[in-house]
Design goal:
By secondary structure, the protein is of the alpha/beta class. Helices cover 43% and strands 20% of the residues.
Length: 305
């Protein structure tokens, strides 16, 4: 009886160890980055840098979830996620359609601005005036959600064939620089870098046409490919990073403390982008000085992307 009891206890112990071990181990997942401003870029020596890179590295450390990382276009990322061909991605905006195949963990908020060619001012100082003018064109990144005001504005311009869809923000900048478009829609994490290019910065004015139209960005997790247990594990780890100031520290390292403060989520964090009523359009010259707090190394990197 003693031997049989010991054998039974050993089997029970091994079963318990296997069960708890499998629960403790996070699966290995593929996570896709996309290049956009200081979210993800390559420095002058070709090394990956950016907010999302730092967020993911710290998230992997805290959650013990190993990631195979790849670099993709934003269009391909959403296509692969919708077809259950990709596990995770970063800096995504939740919509009802996207939440059918993905779960989101918010970690920052921001809003878009219009970068308007200075030669069009003051005549086209409002989104309404831009539409009525009937000629000037705007570049917009495919698949991006720009917020309630800008998405409605772009819909009006699309009806007039005045929107040039681009694969990424850098392509939009090249079109603007070459005179192909007169406006860009951009987040501060993108346009702040352009202010360090004197020749380009003199060509545009940052217009804050939707001052209360906040967009919440989050980690994107496939509902089919990432287990519910691992999604919860990642949510707890990322929320802890927000609570203890690690996320704000990462933001500050890349965009400076002023913009970083504006990117922090309220508590509790909203899960969907807001749909605000229209607000008076204004220029945003004060934000130009805010961006100047970024390290000079980022300004140099912007010219090589």
């Amino acid at each position: 009886m003693g031997y049989r009891l010991k054998h039974l206890l050993l089997l029970v112990g091994l079963s318990f160890w296997a069960a708890t071990g499998s629960e403790a181990a996070c699966q290995r997942y593929t996570l896709a980055f996309y290049e956009l401003g200081v979210l993800y870029y390559r420095s002058a020596d070709g090394k990956p840098q950016g907010i999302d890179k730092d967020i993911v590295e710290e998230l992997a450390r805290r959650s013990a979830c190993p990631f195979n990382t790849v670099l993709e276009s934003r269009v391909r990322i959403w296509d692969q996620l919708s077809r259950q061909l990709l596990d995770l991605s970063v800096s995504g905006i939740a919509t009802a359609q996207r939440e059918e195949f993905a779960e989101f963990i918010p970690y920052f908020q921001t809003r878009n601005y219009a970068l308007l060619r200075r030669t069009l001012l003051p005549a086209l100082a409002t989104p309404e005036a831009f539409v009525k003018q009937g000629q000037s064109q705007v570049a917009a990144v495919k698949s991006f959600k720009h917020g309630a005001l800008y998405d409605a504005w772009l819909a009006e311009l699309r009806a007039q064939n005045r929107v040039v869809d681009v694969a990424d923000f850098d392509q939009g900048v090249r079109l603007f620089r070459g005179g192909r478009v007169d406006a860009l829609i951009a987040l501060p994490t993108s346009w702040a870098l352009l202010l360090h290019d004197p020749g380009l910065a003199q060509q545009f004015q940052v217009m804050d046409w939707a001052p209360q139209d906040q967009l919440v960005h989050g980690l994107i997790m496939s509902r089919q490919r990432v287990s519910a247990e691992d999604r919860e594990r990642l949510r707890q780890a990322l929320n802890a990073m927000i609570s203890d100031g690690s996320v704000k520290s990462i933001f500050s390292r890349h965009v400076g403390p002023t913009l970083a403060a504006g990117m922090m989520l309220p508590h509790p964090a909203p899960r969907r982008p807001g749909h605000d009523a229209p607000h008076p359009p204004t220029a945003a010259p004060e934000l130009r000085s805010n961006a100047g707090t970024m390290p000079y190394s980022l300004a140099r990197a912007s010219t090589t992307n």
